[in-house]
Amino acid sequence: MSLSTNTQIGLIAGLLLAIAGIVGGFGGFVLALILGAIGLAIGRWLDGDLDLSELSERSGLSGRGRDKVR
C-alpha cells in the first residue's frame, strides 16, 4: 500500500496554496507558488529526474548545441 499517491500530493499542495492565499493574500499565494516550484525542481534534481545540463542546452544558455553560422 502506497503512503501517498500523486492525487493526494496534488490535493495537499492545492490546499496549502489556498491557505497561503487566504492568509497572505495574493502576494502570499505567489510566494508560496514560487517556493513550491523551487522545491519541486530541487526534489526532482536530487531524485535524478531533472538534468540541469539538458535544460540549459535546450534554452540556449550554455552556447552549445547550436550552429554558429552567420
Task: Provide the descriptors you would attach to this structure in a database record.
single chain, about 70 residues, mainly alpha, flat
Description:
It is a single chain. This protein is an all-alpha fold and 70 residues long. The model has no long low-confidence stretch (mean pLDDT 78). It is 71% helix and 0% strand. The chain has a domain of 35 residues.
Question: Quick recap of the structure?
Answer:
This is Membrane protein. The chain is mainly α and 70 residues long.
Approximately how much helix is present in the residues? Answer: over 70%
Task: Average the pLDDT over all residues and give the rounded result.
Answer: 78
Structural class: mainly alpha
* Portion in strands: under 5%
The profile of the biggest β sheet is: none
**End-to-end gap:** 58 Å
**What is the string of helix and strand elements?**
HH
What general outline do the C-alpha atoms trace? Answer: flat
Tally of extended strands? Answer: 0
SS field, number of helical segments: 2
Low-confidence segments: none
Radius of gyration: 18 Å
Organism: Pseudonocardia alni (Amycolata alni)
Transmembrane segments: 12-42
Keywords: Membrane, Transmembrane, Transmembrane helix
Protein name: Membrane protein
